[in-house]
Amino acid sequence: MSTYAQKQGFGATIWDYLTTVDHKKIAILYLIAGGFFFIVGGLEAMFIRIQLAVPNNDFVSAGLYNEILTMHGTTMIFLAAMPLIFAFMNAVMPLQIGARDVAFPFLNSLGFWLFFFGGVFLNLSWFLGGAPDAGWTSYASLSIASEGHGVDFYALGLQISGAGTLIGGINFLVTIINMRAPGMTYMRMPLFTWSTFVVSALILFAFPPLTVGLFLLIFDRMFGGNFFDHTMGGNTIIWEHMFWIFGHPEVYILILPAFGIFSEIFATFSRKRLFGYSSMVFATVLIGFLGFMVWAHHMFTTGLGPIANSIFAVATMAIAVPTGIKIFNWMFTMWGGSIKFTTPMLWAVAFIPSFVAGGVTGVMLAVAAADYQYHDTYFVVAHFHYVIVGGVVFALFAGAHFYWPKMFGTMLNEFLGKITFWLFLIGFHLTFFIQHFLGLMGMQRRIVSFLPGQGFETGNLISTVGAFFMAVATIILLINIIMTTVKNERVGNDPWGDGRTLEWALPSPPPFYNFKQLPLVRGLDAYWLEKMEGKKGMTPAEPLGDIHMPNNSFIPFVISLGLFVAAFGAMYRAETAWGIPVLIIGLLITLGSMAMRSIKDDHGYHIHKEDLMDDDDNKGVKA
Amino acid sequence: MQAEEKFTAETWPTAPERATLEGKNKFLGFWLFLGGETVLFASLFATYLALKDKVPNAEHTLAKDLFDLPLVFAATMLLLTSSLTSVYAMHHMKNFNFKKMQLWLGVTVLLGAAFLGLEIYEFNHYVHEYHHTFTSSAFGTAFYTLVGFHGGHVAFGLLWIVTLMIRNSKRGLNLYNAPKFYVASLYWHFIDVVWVFIFTVVYLMGMVG
After folding, report:
1. Cβ of B11 under 8 Å from any chain A Cβ?
2. I need a labelling partner for A187 at 20 to 30 A (CA). Which of A9, A509, B70, B170 fits?
3. Across residues A116-134, what is the average pLDDT?
4. For B93-115, how does the pLDDT look when each residue is reduced to its tens digit (9 = 90+)?
5. What is the biggest distance separating any 2 CA atoms in chain A, rounded to whole angstroms?
6. What is the pLDDT, as a whole number, of residue A610?
7. Which CATH class is domain A2-490?
8. How far is Cα A220 from Cα A225, in angstroms, rounded to an integer?
9. How far is B132 from chain A (nearest CA, A)?
10. Which CATH fold topology does B17-54+69-207 show?
11. Which CA distances in Å does B134 have to A216, A565, A580?
């Protein structure tokens, strides 16, 4: 443990991150990787908007356009939004419940590396003969017909990264159930922890259908299966069901943590207890539950019949009720509060009208009969960008500013943060508001270009201008991050001054064992309670003693690498001689390293009491 | 209680799989994983039911003419019995009787391997007698995927249990490996439950058309 206090060389730092099992470092890995893919997906979005800026544009060819839009959606959902959310869950949730780490630190690392190698595999398609081009939904009728290996990259890459997500979900569930500090009852858990809990349950039950759907696609495309080939008795609708049984819970997997982040921010900067805490918990659980019963609203035009459509329409509209409960609770939290308009709070306040606009169009789309008009138009594009950007991306920006000091020990510049906010907010509404009307006027989704004289010119140009605003806002955030990191002004435990939950009772960043002594939790907003009683920190729940810690391990990296290698073998199996050997070698690497993990005992190690006492004056332990 | 601690039959806790925090986490995490596995198999069952008897033309064999019930019944009995013997193994694990646990795990592995042998024979039979293959029809693809996924789980379970038995053969039971044996046996029960559904949905319902 003493190595942590020393200055490390660059190579040692890299090795440390490759082998780390510390949830705070894994959070940083998720943040970096997710941020990278967010920029990649953002560049793809810019290409889409440049192509559609003027009628009859030929900035990209039609085939390349299909690849770009497919990769934009796939990257943003699976490789940017999910890992960025996982970054905050990893960074904050164990601290909020007063735990020293997650339940399975080794699996936490494995989850990250699986996601990472899956994402890299998927993006290598750009350099190896072309990216997937069947849309992020990859409907089987298109994806079976797609030539080249694009869709194979999609199926195998998502399979690998999906396994990582599932592992992460199980890990968070066990952590929250088993690892809470003394006194941290379920109804004292911060809302972000609650949303992590519900989302992890959604991941557990929503990802297996995707796994199966992807297997069916892999078997059909690479191993001669007939699931989706109607001439052999197959049925392409099976894919639609599998994809959306996963895909609809997936949107709640993205939005619920966003709700959690905003709940923390509203309470913190209104300096008031979250209004209606128990109804917030209830609403979160109910949204998670209903989220599984609405998948067919993506398939109203598939022809499931009026009864199925009506049931799914009603279930979809029902979700507006718990969501409305949340919206009102956030507003009542601010009501009468002593509000501070910091950067995170600006994002949170702007989120309410933006997200409600997306929710209203969501209820419009839920009307099955009307959906026949909206389906596959820009109205749908506008709707889901309003909920995903106006909800999830706003939360990621807000969370980045809010939790940056806790993760890195230094505050992002507030002035630049506010510029990022205003540019992004203006750009966001410029880009997507007009798309509602483009859609109602008949502009199809995923269209590569449009003709002049049909009334689409102005709207599309405005939309493209807005996209550039968002791009500039993101660049300013990057500049802010670089400036902040270079300046590196260290901050104390509670840099916002109004922290309510346990993470703010710890140094920024926290020592690698988090809590020297587990804290005693006496109510909701545990740290705030102590502060209100004039105490400096938490009351310990245990005497100072040895702390048991897990060992670092390189095995998660190797397990994931094996699957990455095997995926190449599976893909090139039919046309090359080396396909099968590579497939076998890859699987052997994975199974061998799993066996190694199983055979070699790993008891971890103990930090001794005496070393902990020395640590007192060394608050800023290197993260 | 520490994972490395030495025990006797008297000091051995009543629930050794949950005596340490690591054990508790494993126990709960594995139950949750089985929840996810249930959804995985549910998706495969749904796919199978949607594609059952969906063949390109009348020359292909349908479910009611394909399945050989006596053989499948024998396989079912083997797997059900192996679940029982794994219960015996866990009974001895809880009583700190390492030798008997290993013995019953050995019987479990043999029964599982026999089941797998029958399944391979069965697939081989369908391929050569009825030309019912993975690529011959959507029915074939769905059948081999569902039953094959289960078979793959059995094979993985066998490897897992054998690895555990060999790794721990010299050192006996402690609180570090007791949870490992326990979750492996949970997994084995899960495979068994899935097979009960396969026997019902694929084979019995297949016989009635």
Report:
1. no
2. A509
3. 96
4. 999 999 999 999 999 999 999 99
5. 79
6. 85
7. mainly alpha
8. 4
9. 13
10. Four Helix Bundle (Hemerythrin (Met), subunit A) (1.20.120)
11. 12, 25, 19
Q: Return the half-sphere exposure (C-beta side, CA atoms, 13 A cut-off) of residue A416.
A: 16
Query: CA-to-CA distance for B75 and A419, rounded, in angstroms?
Result: 68
Record the tokens describing residue A478, joined without a space.
Answer: 């990057």
Q: Which residue has the tokens 């995985």?
A: B40
- Burial label for A486, CB within 10 Å (0-12, 13-18, 19+), is exposed
With a CB cutoff of 8 Å and minimum separation 6, the contacts of A607 are A1, A513, A546, A547, A549
Q: Which residue stretches of A223-319 are H helix? A: 237-270, 277-290, 306-318
Ordered alpha helix ranges (H), A367-493: 368-374, 378-387, 394-408, 414-440, 457-487
Which residues lie below 8 Å from residue A88, measured CB to CB, with a gap of 6+? A27, A192, A257, A261, A396, A399, A403
Going B107 to B112 to B113 to B118, the CA torsion angle's sign is: positive
Average pLDDT estimate for A331-350: 97
Cross-chain CB nearest to B43 (options A208, A229, A231): A208
Phi, psi of A550 (to 5 degrees): -80, 155
| CB contact residues (below 8 A), chain B span 102-141, against chain A | 134-141
**Which residues 57-96 on chain B approach chain A with CB closer than 8 angstroms?**
none
Crossing angle of helices A237-270 and A378-387, in 10° steps, is: 40
Farthest-apart Cα atoms in chain B, separation: 67
- Work out the angle at residue A407's Cα, subtended by the Cα atoms of residues A401 and A408, and round it to the nearest 5 degrees: 90
Alpha-carbon distance A231 to B138, whole Å? 9
Q: Is pLDDT at A7 greater than 70 in this prediction? A: no
| CA separation, residue A307 to residues A312, A368, A369 (Å) | 9, 11, 12
Q: Where are the domains of chain B?
A: 17-54+69-207
CB burial of A533-563 (b: ≥16 within 10 Å; e: otherwise) equals eeeeebeebeeeeebbbbebbebbbbbbbbb
At A88, the pLDDT band (50, 70, 90 cuts) reads very high
Would you state the structure tokens that stand for residue A425, as one six-digit string? 């907010």
How does pLDDT run across A526-550, given as a tens digit for each residue?
999 999 999 988 999 999 999 999 9
Residue A3 has pLDDT above 70, yes or no: no
In the stretch 164-183 of chain A, residues with CB closer than 8 A to chain B read: 166, 170-171, 173-174, 177-179
SS3 state of residue A478? helix
pLDDT of residue B2: 67
Higher pLDDT, B3 or B87: B87
In this complex, the residue of B25, B43, B46 whose CB is nearest that of residue A104 is B25
User: What residues have CB less than 8 Å from A558, skipping those under 6 apart?
Assistant: A589, A590, A593
Q: HSE of A92 in the Cβ direction (CA atoms, 13 Å)?
A: 31
Find the mean pLDDT for residues B48-55.
Answer: 96
Place of tokens 């709707």: A383
Q: Is A238 on the interface with B (CB under 8 A)?
A: yes
Q: CA angle, A255 as apex, A77 and A185 as ends, to 5°?
A: 130
Report the run of H or E that residue A605 belongs to, with start and end. Answer: strand A605-607
**Residue B1 sits at the chain A interface (C-beta within 8 Å):** no
Three-class DSSP category at A330: helix
Burial label, A285 (beta-carbon count in 10 A; 0-12, 13-18, 19+): middle
By the CB < 8 Å criterion, does A587 face chain B? Answer: no
Q: In this complex, which of A178, A225, A232 lies closest to B56 when CB atoms are compared?
A: A232
User: Which residue stretches of A52-149 are H helix?
Assistant: 62-74, 82-96, 105-124, 140-143
> pLDDT over 90 for what percent of chain A?
94
What's the one-letter identity of residue A36?
F
Strand partners, A607: A547
For the record, the structure tokens of A232 come out as: 């052999």
- Give burial (CB, 10 Å; 0-12/13-18/19+) of A101: buried
